[in-house]
UniProtKB/TrEMBL annotation:
Keywords: Sigma factor, Transcription, Transcription regulation. The keyword Membrane does not apply. Belongs to the sigma-70 factor family. ECF subfamily. GO terms for biological process: DNA-templated transcription initiation. GO terms for molecular function: DNA binding; sigma factor activity. Residues 26-88 form the RNA polymerase sigma-70 region domain. This is RNA polymerase subunit sigma-24. InterPro entries: RNA_pol_sigma-70-like (IPR039425), RNA_pol_sigma-70_dom (IPR014284), RNA_pol_sigma70_r2 (IPR007627), RNA_pol_sigma70_r4_t2 (IPR013249), RNA_pol_sigma_r2 (IPR013325), RNA_pol_sigma_r3/r4-like (IPR013324), WH-like_DNA-bd_sf (IPR036388). It comes from Paenibacillus antarcticus.
DNA sequence: AGCCGCATTCCGCTATCGAC
DNA sequence: GTCGATAGCGGAATGCGGCT
């Protein structure tokens, strides 16, 4: 994989190169867009808008290796803009209702009972905590990228995730895996197993 | 090629602060 | 008092260059 080379080709106007870059991560893009839009049509719309933006602004990207975090930041901001325009951006007090939407049949995450349980658990967090945790453990994005996406300081993202995990732990009735040495938390482990992002 | 040490980056955690 | 935001610390992971 020569990411930087592909990005440079795309920056020179090579549409094939840009297409290749997008295809490699198309599933990740879709899942990310879906997690915000909650339906296939809007997720596809957001992805289409992202591709247009990428094509227009690719010259501004300085580090080729940062292409995917940069493009995902664009996608998330586009999703939020669409939601705002539709006046559907979910305010804090409505988050529980939205959690039920997340369990509809076309949700790509709703595969098993335990995944549904995790969605229910996540629905008890604040919107911002849930967003940060989903971006980290569902979409496997680094803290800095999440901070960029959400326009929040890095420390704030760390805090949201840490406190969100803490809440999940208490909701799960204590920590099955935690111990005195401070190893990986039960809730965190649960999330990582759900999403396949557990590191070996 | 393999090992070692150093530097950098990333992450988890927590103390502190301010708003309510 | 509670909650969320912020900053900073320490440990783990990773990258990289030098040496054998």
């Amino acid at each position: 994989m020569h990411l930087s080379r592909l990005v440079k080709q795309a920056q020179k106007g090579n549409k094939e190169a840009l297409l290749q870059l997008i295809i490699v991560e198309q599933d990740a893009y879709y899942r990310l867009a879906y997690s915000y839009m909650r339906n296939e049509h809007d997720a596809m719309d957001a992805m289409a808008d992202m591709i247009v933006t990428l094509y227009e602004k690719l010259e501004q990207l300085q580090k080729g290796e940062a292409f995917y975090s940069w493009s995902k930041t664009i996608l998330v901001k586009r999703c939020k803009t669409i939601l705002r325009n539709k006046e559907r951006f979910i305010p804090l007090e409505d988050e529980r209702e939205s959690s039920h939407d997340a369990l509809t049949d076309d949700n790509p995450y709703r595969n098993t009972e335990s995944e549904m349980n995790m969605q229910v658990l996540l629905s008890h967090l604040s919107v911002r905590q849930r967003e940060a945790i989903e971006l980290r453990y569902v979409h496997d994005l680094p803290y800095q990228t999440i901070a960029d996406m959400t326009d929040a300081p890095l420390g704030t993202i760390k805090s949201r995730i840490s406190q969100g995990i803490h809440k999940l732990k208490s909701m799960m009735g204590g920590d099955r895996y935690d111990n005195d040495r401070g190893e990986i938390t039960g809730a965190q482990t649960e999330l990582e197993y759900r999403t396949g992002t557990i590191r070996t």
